[in-house]
Amino acid sequence: MEQPQEVEDEEYERVYQRVAAVDVAKASGVVCTRVPDEDRPGRRKMHVWTVTATMGAVTELGDHLRCEGIEVVTLESTSDYWRIWYVVLEAAGLTVQLVNARAVKNVPGRAKTDKKDAAWLAKLTERGMLRPSFVPPCDIRRLRDYTRLRAGLVHDRTRQWARLEKLLERALIKISAVASTLDTQSVRAMLEALIAGQRNPTVLADLAIGRMRAKRKELAEALDGRFEDHHAELARILLDQIDALTRQVNALDERISELIAQIPAAWGVDADGTTGPEAGRGPDAAVLPAVARLDEITGCGITAAAAIIAEIGLDMTVFGTPGRLVSWAKRCPQTRQSGQKAGAGKAAKGNPWLNGILGEIAASASRTDTFLGERYRRLARRRGKRKALAAIARSILVIIFHLLAGPAARFRDLGPGYYDNRISRERKINNHVRQLQALGLNVTIEEAA
Known about the structure:
By secondary structure, the protein is an alpha/beta fold. It has helices spanning 55-67, 83-91, 114-126, 138-170, 185-196, 201-205, 216-222, 229-261, 290-295, 302-312, 322-328, 352-365, 371-383, 385-405, 418-422, 425-438, and strands at 19-24, 28-36, 44-52, 72-76, 96-99, 268-269, 275-276, 335-338, 341-344. The protein has 3 domains: 19-126, Nucleotidyltransferase, domain 5 (2-Layer Sandwich), CATH 3.30.420; 141-261; 268-334 and 342-405, no CATH class. Helices cover 48% and strands 10% of the residues.
């Protein structure tokens, strides 16, 4: 018989004596408290009541729970309705934990009401059977609102460019087949001339600047269409929307930089130990600012670095290890084991904002002559491009953890020859011999003079 092994409980698996839980709805919430019964030692006393989801009512609830000596309050993650409860109760000095709705489902076969759900949530809380979700601190949540809005506006601007391209296709203008993108100075000048009434394709093609001037003949052929007055009116509307979105995105970029500069954990440190919003930018800096450290990662820029900080924060002690951060982001397969069967399930859906950023960084890094680029190409040959990109995104997330966990750490590219330098000479020879033998050839090894 297999010997029993001692398993250490996780930090969240502890028993609370005085707990509260809120079954959250849109306009109200059912509150349940469970505390020791002073009249009956060893027994529990439970109260259930309904509180409206308003600032005044939730603030009054926070004062009541604090007077009751509640140790922890549990909220069910229901849409965005939980936010008023979390923010107000947290400001009241209470320890609040947010839990996934899938982890608090009631026992099947029992009646389901809001009061029973709140009581069940309180019972799970007092037994320490819930794993709280990650909720960043207030300053990171504020930064996240700006970065997510910026991502949404960039997405809207991309949609407007797509609409403009379809409009040009309907006008028989094939400029998108010659220019790689419509967002260039040359194409913008041609569009403005078309809107102003110019229809001569040769005159329009002469507006090209830079490397586009070498394509004037192709541009003249592409601009020979049927661009009418109503096309010009619609194009003007789309370009005005694109310009407005661009101004808003630029304003958000400035605001995001200001918010990050207000977070002390994101500051750098100069060589003399001085810290502050402008510290750590010199060549001899002891610690780079958090955005600058992430900016050194292959494929990552300042905008992506700020978005990453907004999604995972700057305090890596919340996750503890790189593996837990990867697991939280759902960048690894799930473990599936039953009896003698063990395998890996599909990765679940994680934070879509973080996964989108990691995907963009991984795609950029895959096209570089660096360690990450070479790692992508090696994996793509064996596992396919999609799985290779997922693996690169996971590696980038591990790098991000170490850079944020150790402020003095710096990113250092291992180089594209890292794998070849670590593989022994005999192993390289054997790999090449097997490849030749797979082609039906007899191989004889002879040392060169």
